[in-house]
């Protein structure tokens, strides 16, 4: 799909949404609200296809016009949308340094593997590329090229979480700054991804992302007036039960995960970059071959992930949920559910919703 044709499709969808929202001013029927929600989700899926996932989609989210703004705003939006479609996916706009650190921490405990780019093994530049990639930001593969990305930071005293720290002349090692003179890195063979002190002065410090706040997704903005009427996961019950049967998952698991992840909002977008009903990260979605903003695809992708984790952890639901939330590296590092408050609360909430004890 070309950028121009993608833009045309998005604008057509937005026109439909505006028309439906306008009609709702005189009629609040459940069927009309449902139609509006469907159109909003479809518009978001089209926007993602037209511009690729990641920062450009986040830019589009801030620009969606409401029915009250009228056609003049929509016309202005079309100009901005066309501009956004020409942006490069390398941009880090809308992603924060803290989100980068959080994405990298999911790989704590993953073993160093030279040339590794997956959750089973990573080298230093593989970790950097994957952490940023999970947020929809594209970086080069090797450390020397990554050390030229973004903008220069004068000194470690001015570094912020998420900045890249490069070492060696020429550059042969790279890490992500965490703050307080610490960094997260895949150090060397025989070690695992870990947080360590910045042991020497970096030869380069590069800032790839800004601290701009995350914004709502297109569909979320488009259906604000109907979110209360369409909240919850009950409307996806058939998708959940079919996926659980297809992938051999415990009954109720997918509904509980969806409730905890997004509250049933198929257009949800987290500050870390996870999106959709099941809150799947961009790189994970690409690996699964799914669009996380399409509920049927998101549910199937999450089911495949959880099914794999259940096999890896001999049927343990708590460990599988911990891997879904914090990453398999963290589960391996701690030999169980990681001691992160968020992850422990996450596991407890979902098992509670399923009526199971941890």
Brief digest:
With 358 residues, this protein is an alpha+beta fold. It is built from 15 helices and eight strands.
Structure description:
A hairpin with a 5-residue loop joins β4 (164-167) and β5. Strands 3-8-4-5-6-7 form a six-stranded antiparallel sheet. Strands 1-2 form a two-stranded antiparallel sheet. The termini are far apart. It folds into three domains: 1-88 and 216-224; 97-207, endopeptidase domain like (from Nostoc punctiforme) (endopeptidase fold (from Nostoc punctiforme), Alpha-Beta Complex); 231-358, Orthogonal Bundle (Lysozyme). Helix content is 48%, strand content 8%. The chain is an alpha+beta fold and 358 residues long. It has helices spanning 3-24, 30-51, 55-63, 70-85, 97-105, 124-133, 143-146, 218-222, 237-247, 253-262, 282-288, 295-312, 317-326, 328-334, 341-353, and strands at 117-118, 121-122, 151-152, 164-167, 173-179, 182-185, 194-197, 204-207. α1 runs antiparallel to α4 and α13 (317-326) crosses α14 (328-334).
Defining key terms:
48% helix, two-stranded antiparallel ribbon, disordered N terminus, alpha+beta, Lysozyme, six-stranded antiparallel sheet, 3 domains, endopeptidase fold (from Nostoc punctiforme), 358 residues
Please compute the radius of gyration using only Cα atoms: 21 Å
Total individual domains: 3
Tell me roughly what share of residues is in helical segments. Answer: 40-55%
Q: What's the story with the biggest beta sheet?
A: 6 strands, antiparallel
Rounded mean pLDDT score: 75
Poorly predicted sequence stretches spanning 5 or more consecutive residues: 1-91, 212-231
Structural class: alpha+beta
Q: Could you state the order of secondary-structure elements as H and E?
A: HHHHHEEHHEEEEEEHHHHHHHH
Number of strands: 8
Total helical elements: 15
CATH architecture of the largest domain: Orthogonal Bundle
Highest CATH level, the class of the largest domain: Mainly Alpha
Stated plainly, the CATH topology of the largest domain is called Lysozyme
Shape: elongated
Report the end-to-end length measured between terminal Cα atoms: 47 Å
Strand order of the largest sheet: 3-8-4-5-6-7
> What fraction of residues sit in β-strands?
5-15%
